[in-house]
Amino acid sequence: MLSADLKWFVVLAEEGQVTSAADILRLSQPTLSRRLARLERQLGVELFDRHGRRLRLNQHGRLMFEHASRALTELTSAEERIATMISPTAGTVRLDFLHSFGTWLIPDLIRGFRSEAPQIRFALHQDAAGLLGERVRSGHADLAVVSPRPDAADLQWLLLSRQPLALAVPAGHRLAVRAAIDLGDAADEPFIAMHPDFGMRRLLDEAAEGAGFTPEIVFESSELATATGLVSAGLGVALVPVSQAARWPDGIVIIPVRGARAAREIGMIWAQDRPLTPPVLRFRDFVARRT
């Protein structure tokens, strides 16, 4: 397929090393090296700067990568649409989601959908909320389950649920006896937070701003489980969502946070200007019926 002719270059550019790219592509290293040499001869320029075994895109390579990535996305989409035309009941849903949804929400949605449409496949990807919207815009994903709602007019939004927010504190902490708190009550506490691209970090920053303080961040994590684990060790406090699926480590107390901002919305997004294939529409409508 045409997309396969582009994929090896995109993977090599992303990996920056022939060895790892060849493993991903299931090609021999000499085969991949020959393909690169042939492409560079055809273009009349080198695409990478060589640093030992490492490859780094030069100005020509960056231009090639930009266009090859875009073309690969479009060709892959065309192949999927043609496959759907041939067999409308089959196809692939490219679904992105936050890391914290991978243990409960996404498996539950897919399990329920596959009971009525077992022939539809899923291509899954996890990432931070700030990056998932861009993947949907660029066509790398059909749908994404994110939180909070992106502030973007070019993304459609389907609200799935709302989760109350709470403050996780170590057992024995001065706030642990409270039945509920205002976030401002923890203004002087060290916070364990998610990285800036993550949705929970945006919620913390917005809630703290509304409470009139800037949190002191002592550690940034990419996993809520890590954040609550470090809270149990007494390293700080953390703003966390509360759900039926939540499993808290020993040694922490969960205190509900009061206020209008003390909840996170979970929803599904898709690009406003890109038509969805029948399998994607079917899955989106299935999810909508469950809300």
How would you describe what is shown here?
Helices cover 41% and strands 24% of the residues. The chain has 291 residues and is of the alpha/beta class. It folds into 3 domains: 2-84, Arc Repressor Mutant, subunit A (Orthogonal Bundle); 87-159 and 266-290, D-Maltodextrin-Binding Protein, domain 2, CATH 3.40.190; 162-263, D-Maltodextrin-Binding Protein, domain 2. The strands form 3 sheets. Strands 3, 4, 5, 6, 9, 10 and 11 form a 7-stranded mixed sheet that branches. A two-stranded antiparallel ribbon has the order 1-2. Helix 5 links the parallel strand 3 (91-97) and strand 4. The longest helix has 28 residues, at 59-86. 29% of the residues are buried. The mean pLDDT is 91.
Furnish the topology, listing elements before pairings:
Layout: H1 2-15, H2 18-25, H3 29-43, E1 48-51, E2 54-57, H4 59-86, E3 91-97, H5 105-114, E4 120-126, H6 129-138, E5 143-146, E6 155-170, E7 190-194, H7 199-211, E8 216-221, H8 224-232, E9 238-241, E10 252-256, E11 263-271, H9 278-290
Parallel strand pairs: 3-4, 3-5, 7-8
Antiparallel strand pairs: 1-2, 5-11, 6-9, 6-10, 6-11
Short description, anyone?
The chain is an alpha/beta fold.
List its traits.
D-Maltodextrin-Binding Protein, domain 2, Arc Repressor Mutant, subunit A, 291 residues, two-stranded antiparallel sheet, 9 helices, alpha/beta
> What is the typical, i.e. mean, pLDDT?
91
- Radius of gyration (CA) equals 23 Å
Class inferred from helices and paired strands: alpha/beta
Q: Regions with pLDDT < 50 over 5+ consecutive residues?
A: none
* CATH level 1 name of the largest domain: Alpha Beta
Number of domains: 3
Distance N to C terminus: 39 Å
Architecture per CATH nomenclature, i.e. the level-2 architecture of the largest domain = 3-Layer(aba) Sandwich
Strand content: 15-25%
CATH topology of the largest domain: D-Maltodextrin-Binding Protein, domain 2
How does the overall form come out from the CA principal axes?
globular
The CATH superfamily of the largest domain is identified as: Periplasmic binding protein-like II
